Amino acid sequence: MEYITGGGMRKETIPQSLACEGEIMLGAVLRDLLDTPIGVELVVMRDSRLASPLFVDRVHTVWVDEPNSFQSIWKAWICQCDAIWPIAPENNGILEQLCLDVENVGKWLLTSPSVAVRLAASKLATVKRLAKFGLPVVPSLALDGSMDLTGKAWVVKPDDGLGCEDIHIIRDQGETLELNPSQKWVVQPLLKGDALSLSVLLAAGKARLLTCNRQHIVEKGNGFRLHGVTVNALTDVDGRWQRLAEDIARAMPELWGYVGIDLMLTESGPIILEVNPRLTTSYAGLRLALGGNPAAWVINLLLTQELPSLSTSLPQAIEIDLGRHDVD
Predict the structure, then answer these.
(1) For the domain bounded by 16-118, which CATH number is listed?
(2) What CA–CA distance (Å, rounded) separates 189 from 19?
């Protein structure tokens, strides 16, 4: 179930960027699940304002027509399924609650458990945990009105923020920010370097690197926008990215399944920004980039607790372009 396109925002207008990324991830995971060797019957929830999902002839679509019907439909259908793969934002506890719902009815969860989501959803908690294990992380503090923000550029973002949403760049302490006072905000230095991400599979403190990706992020106004991703942009000939994934897995053993790790490659080396305990847009390029079925790897991980041994005979870089689509 992809939350953004699956009726989770039925009460409001869906942000263009989130709708686009949601559609890309949903299409990719449906394609991969339909091609798994064990054979599956798929059910997908869908916001009635949107067109039918891909593979509609092979997927049962449950339409969310009313603004207040998402929760009741979701809870009814997870009871009828054997395994559930929620794809949702971490902010406001959304993904954590969906995972809790699945755990409470005793069904298989094809993503990180709720306890891992709770940890990774907080940028401050994640940085604190990783720093405890000696990993290179971006310096992060809870925003305080008395902070001296002179002398360098800063980034202010929600502690549980999603992607580039609600990020503010500050280059002048005199700048006025209109921030939601009920939300917890984080301040970090604006780093210079290449925006990268790692796509990994994790289980029980172990890791298998899938790809190292380049994120096409640009400054827009006083914030950022993600225009696309090059999946498998960087090779791992010296094993540095695999080792980093293993270090993160040991520091955060609660994580399970597909995880995305955002980082900056600076002059002094990689700096970890955040950990996403869910599918990311880069997932959509994995099949072509690696010549394998990542959904099948996740299901096999669930059944055997064994991380896959990946062939590197057909690696290639795959471009994912993020278009823009309004949803009224």
Answers:
(1) 3.40.50.20
(2) 29
